[in-house]
Amino acid sequence: MNNTLEYLFKQSKFNDKEKEAFKANLEQRLSLDNHDLALEEKMNIVMTCFEKNVNSVIMQIPDLEELFAFKKCVRKYSRVKMRAATYYNSVLHSEEDHFARNVDLLKPYLIQGQQII
């Protein structure tokens, strides 16, 4: 990722201060995006298990069997999702630089330094 960023910085004519500010902003945005995606994934697990297992009205005292089935579903579903994510990241795409691949896809659309007036 650093090689790709350096390549883009050479074309952009950023000074060192602007480069550091850009990198800090990019890191912050990635962190916030990852947090949002994690929350969305957790809510997806909870809602899927809730719809699958809980049939009683929310205002009532929940049935213990439903409650146990819901907890069991959340645990199992979370483990399966975590295994899938771990397998995908460690086995399938361990060597691939996703940022560099995305930038390579966008190269035809990037403004080249000599094209700027």
Helix content: over 70%
Major sheet description: none
Shape type: elongated
Q: What would the average pLDDT be, to the nearest integer?
A: 77
Strand content: under 5%
What's the total number of strands?
0
Give the CA-CA distance, first to last residue: 28 Å
The number of helical runs is 4
Assign the structural class, choosing from mainly alpha, mainly beta, alpha/beta, alpha+beta, or little secondary structure: mainly alpha
Following the backbone from N to C, one meets helices and strands in this order, namely HHHH
* Estimated radius of gyration: 22 Å
Number of domains: 1
Unreliable stretches: 113-117
What this model shows, in words?
- The protein is an all-alpha fold.
- It has one domain.
- Helices cover 74% and strands 0% of the residues.
- It has four helices and no strands.
- It has helices at 2-12, 16-53, 64-92, 98-106.
- Helix 2 runs antiparallel to helix 3 (64-92).
- It is elongated, with a radius of gyration of 22 Å.
- It starts with a helix and ends in an 11-residue tail after the last helix.
- Mean pLDDT is 77; it is low at 113-117.
